[in-house]
Amino acid sequence: MTDEEKTYKTKKVITIGIVSELTGLSERQIRYYEERKLIFPERSDRGTRKYSFVDVETLMDIANQMEDGVRTFEIRQEMKKKPDEDKLKRSMIKGQLNAQFGIQKGLK
Fold first, then answer.
1. Class assignment of domain 14-71?
2. Less CB within 10 Å around the terminal CB: N or C of the chain?
3. pLDDT digits (tens, 9 = 90+) for 38-55
4. What secondary structure letter does DSSP report for 39?
C-alpha cells in the first residue's frame, strides 16, 4: 500500500499506551495478541510499536471474542478467512453493479 492509498484509519501512528487507553486492554494483553499473530504493529526506528485505527478496531473485536470464550487459535483461523471473504464480497458487489448498469466484461 502506497502512502497515497493509506487513510487516517490505516496509518500506523498510535503508540501502545494510547491503544491501551482506547481499548481498555493492558499493554501486556496487546503484546500477547501480537505474540499470537493476531495483530501486526509496525515499529519505529527506536522500536516503538505503532498501531492504526484499524488495529484498534481489530483489538476490540479480539477482546470481545476472547470474552465470549473464543481461543486465539480460532480467532487467527477466522482472520485468515476474512481476506478471502472480503475479496468475494467485493467481486459480488462489482458483479451486481455491472449487471445493474449494463456493463459487460472487457468493455471500459
1. mainly alpha
2. C
3. 999 999 999 999 999 999
4. -
